[in-house]
Automatic annotation (TrEMBL):
<keyword id="KW-0862">Zinc</keyword>
<dbReference type="Pfam" id="PF06573">
    <property type="entry name" value="Churchill"/>
</dbReference>
<comment type="similarity">
    <text>Belongs to the Churchill family.</text>
</comment>
<keyword id="KW-0805">Transcription regulation</keyword>
<keyword id="KW-0804">Transcription</keyword>
<dbReference type="InterPro" id="IPR009508">
    <property type="entry name" value="Transcrpt_activator_Churchill"/>
</dbReference>
<keyword id="KW-0217">Developmental protein</keyword>
<keyword id="KW-0479">Metal-binding</keyword>
<dbReference type="GO" id="GO:0008543">
    <property type="term" value="P:fibroblast growth factor receptor signaling pathway"/>
</dbReference>
<protein>
    <recommendedName>
        <fullName>Protein Churchill</fullName>
    </recommendedName>
</protein>
<dbReference type="GO" id="GO:0045893">
    <property type="term" value="P:positive regulation of DNA-templated transcription"/>
</dbReference>
<dbReference type="InterPro" id="IPR038543">
    <property type="entry name" value="Churchill_sf"/>
</dbReference>
<keyword id="KW-0010">Activator</keyword>
<dbReference type="GO" id="GO:0008270">
    <property type="term" value="F:zinc ion binding"/>
</dbReference>
């Protein structure tokens, strides 16, 4: 998610463990239109950068 879409960059997730994907409770809304609706993933890419997993969406 981009910086305009999330509420907190690194939220406290308690005991939530995600196999893959994003913590959608932290989703504020679309950075372009502001709507908070179903998130349809159009293009997802993942990889490692400096030992950290990076996931990006279009």
């Amino acid at each position: 998610m981009c910086g305009g879409c999330v509420g907190t960059e690194y939220p406290e997730r308690g005991t939530t463990c995600l196999e893959g994907g994003s913590f959608l409770l932290n989703f504020v809304g679309c950075a372009q239109c502001g709507r908070r609706d179903f998130v349809l993933v159009g293009n997802r890419a993942e990889g490692l950068h400096g030992g950290e997993e990076i996931v990006t969406y279009d």
